[in-house]
C-alpha cells in the first residue's frame, strides 16, 4: 500500500495570474512562510438524483460546482526593504486589494514641485537622498531673500503630522546643484532658472518608500496557489478569497487567508525546494514594538485588534464560465483595549452619537519591517465593559466606513 502521508510535509506556493484562471509558473521562490495550513481538495454541492423506483434504496448522487479551497496563516511583517513587496503580496492581492509600490527613488515629488500662482522665479531640481520618514508630508519652500544661485534664501517648512512635530528651517541659501535638505533626511539639488523673488513658493510632497494595500471595488485580481502535501500537488488556479489581520498582545501579527479557486486533478509531484522571499522575522506586539495604537485620536492600551476584510467569495460554474466571484460588503473589526477614563476618551458617547474617527496602528521599528494600519472613518458600535484580572477593559466592534470617493476604507502600508 505504500508509506504514510505526513501533515508536516506541506509547502504552499503562490503567484499572481495575468488572466483569470490561466495559471502561472511557480518555483521555490514563490513559497510562502505559513502556519496553520489546510486544504479541502474538493469543495462541492452534492445533489441526489432522486429516481422513482418500485423498491427501496438510495439513488446515485452527483457533485456539482466542484472547486478547491485552502486556508493558512502567515506573519504580518515587513519585506526586509522598504519599497519592496512582502512575501505575502499574492495573498492580499487575491483578497480584492490593490497593491501600490513606491520605490525609494520615488519618495520625493518630481521637479519642479507645485509652484504657487504668480511666482516670478523658476527652478528645477533633481532628487538627492531619498525620504526616510514614515508618513507623507507636504513641504512648503518660500523665498525670503530674492536672487539667483548662491544669493536666494528660502524657508523650508512642514506642518506637524501625527506624533511628528513641525519642521522649519529658515534662511537656507539656494545654490545650484547643492543639496537642499527636506524633512526625513530627503534632499533635492535645485537649479534656479529665473531669479527667485521674495514670496515665491513651491510645495513638494515627500512620502515613505513602501508597499501600500487598499480596497478596490472592481477588476479584482486572481492568484494561483500550489498546495504541496506529502508528495501530492493540489493546484488551485483562479483563486480569490478573504482574510483577517490579527494583532494581539504578546503575539506576532498574522494574516489568516481563506481562499477558493478552480479544481484540478491532484498529481504526484515533488515540491521545489522552498526559498521564501520577502519575509522577515515578525515582532510580537508590545509597548516597544508597537509605538502607535490610537483610536479617535486617543492613545489606547491595546490588547487585541482583529480586522476582517469581509469579502464574500462564491464559485459559479455555468456554460462559458467557471469562476470564483468576490464581493466586499465591508471591512469590520473587533477591538479590546484598557478602559480609558471618561476625561480622556468617552467611548460610549462616541458610539452613542454615531461618530466617525480614525484608527491608527504602527507595528515595527526599523525600515523594512514596519506595518501601518490606518482608517480615517471608523465607527464604534456595541462597546462593552469586560474584566481582565483586576483591570476594566472595553471591547467593541468597529465598522470601516469609506468616504463618498470610495475604496478608502483603510490602508495597510508595509515599509
Task: Describe what you observe in this structure.
By secondary structure, the protein is an all-beta fold. It folds into two domains: 278 residues, no CATH class; 105 residues, no CATH class. Helices cover 3% and strands 48% of the residues. The chain has two helices and 27 strands. It has a 17-stranded antiparallel beta sheet that branches. Strands 5-12-7-8-9 form a five-stranded antiparallel beta sheet, with no helix packed on it. A three-stranded antiparallel beta sheet has the order 6-11-10, with no helix packed on it. Strand 21 and strand 22 form a beta hairpin. The radius of gyration is 27 Å and the shape is globular. The two termini are 51 Å apart.
What is the gist of this entry?
Helices cover 3% and strands 48% of the residues.
* Tally of helical runs: 2
Assembly form of the protein: single chain
How many domains would you count in the coordinates? 2
Low-confidence stretches: none
Percent of residues in helices comes to under 10%
Q: What is the mean predicted local confidence, pLDDT?
A: 96
The secondary-structure class comes to mainly beta
Radius of gyration: 27 Å
Shape, principal axes of CA atoms = globular
Please indicate the percent range of residues in DSSP E strands (runs of 2 or more).
over 45%
Distance between the termini: 51 Å
Compute the number of strand runs.
27
Describe the main β-sheet briefly. 17 strands, antiparallel
Amino acid at each position: 500500500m505504500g508509506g504514510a502521508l505526513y501533515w508536516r510535509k506541506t509547502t504552499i506556493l503562490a503567484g499572481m495570474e495575468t488572466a483569470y484562471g490561466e495559471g502561472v509558473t511557480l518555483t521555490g521562490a514563490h513559497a510562502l512562510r505559513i502556519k496553520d495550513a489546510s486544504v479541502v481538495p474538493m469543495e462541492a454541492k452534492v445533489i441526489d438524483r432522486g429516481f422513482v423506483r418500485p423498491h427501496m434504496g438510495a439513488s446515485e448522487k452527483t457533485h456539482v460546482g466542484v472547486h478547491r479551497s485552502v486556508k493558512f496563516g502567515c506573519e504580518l511583517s515587513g519585506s526586509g526593504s522598504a519599497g519592496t513587496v512582502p512575501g505575502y503580496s499574492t495573498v492580499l492581492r487575491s483578497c480584492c486589494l490593490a497593491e501600490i509600490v513606491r520605490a525609494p527613488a520615488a519618495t520625493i515629488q518630481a521637479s519642479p514641485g507645485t509652484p504657487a500662482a504668480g511666482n516670478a522665479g523658476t527652478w528645477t531640481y533633481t532628487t538627492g537622498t531619498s525620504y526616510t520618514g514614515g508618513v507623507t508630508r507636504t513641504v512648503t519652500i518660500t523665498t525670503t531673500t530674492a536672487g539667483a544661485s548662491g544669493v536666494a534664501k528660502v524657508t523650508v517648512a512642514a506642518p506637524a503630522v501625527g506624533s511628528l512635530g513641525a519642521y522649519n528651517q529658515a534662511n537656507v541659501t539656494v545654490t545650484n546643484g547643492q543639496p537642499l535638505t527636506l524633512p526625513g533626511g530627503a534632499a533635492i539639488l535645485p537649479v534656479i532658472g529665473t531669479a527667485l523673488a521674495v514670496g515665491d513658493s513651491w510645495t513638494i510632497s515627500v512620502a515613505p518608500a513602501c508597499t501600500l494595500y487598499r480596497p478596490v471595488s472592481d477588476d479584482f485580481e486572481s492568484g494561483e496557489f500550489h498546495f504541496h502535501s506529502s508528495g501530492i500537488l493540489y493546484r488551485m488556479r483562479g483563486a480569490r478569497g478573504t482574510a483577517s489581520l490579527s494583532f494581539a498582545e504578546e503575539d506576532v501579527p498574522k494574516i489568516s487567508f481563506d481562499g477558493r479557486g478552480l479544481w484540478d486533478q491532484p498529481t504526484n509531484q515533488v515540491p521545489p525546494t522552498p526559498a521564501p522571499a520577502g519575509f522577515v522575522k515578525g515582532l510580537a506586539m508590545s509597548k516597544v514594538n508597537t509605538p502607535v495604537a490610537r483610536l479617535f485620536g486617543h492613545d489606547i492600551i491595546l490588547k487585541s485588534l482583529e480586522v476582517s476584510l469581509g469579502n464574500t467569495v462564491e464559485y459559479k460554474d455555468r456554460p462559458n464560465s467557471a469562476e470564483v466571484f468576490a464581493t466586499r460588503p465591508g471591512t469590520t473589526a473587533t477591538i479590546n483595549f484598557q478602559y480609558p477614563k471618561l476625561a480622556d476618551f468617552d467611548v460610549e458617547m462616541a458610539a452613542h452619537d454615531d461618530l466617525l474617527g480614525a484608527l491608527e496602528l504602527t507595528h515595527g521599528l526599523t525600515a523594512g519591517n514596519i506595518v501601518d494600519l490606518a482608517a480615517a472613518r471608523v465607527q464604534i458600535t456595541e462597546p462593552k465593559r469586560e474584566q481582565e484580572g483586576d483591570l476594566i477593559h472595553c471591547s467593541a466592534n468597529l465598522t470601516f466606513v469609506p468616504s463618498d470617493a470610495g475604496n478608502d476604507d483603510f490602508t495597510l502600508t508595509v515599509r
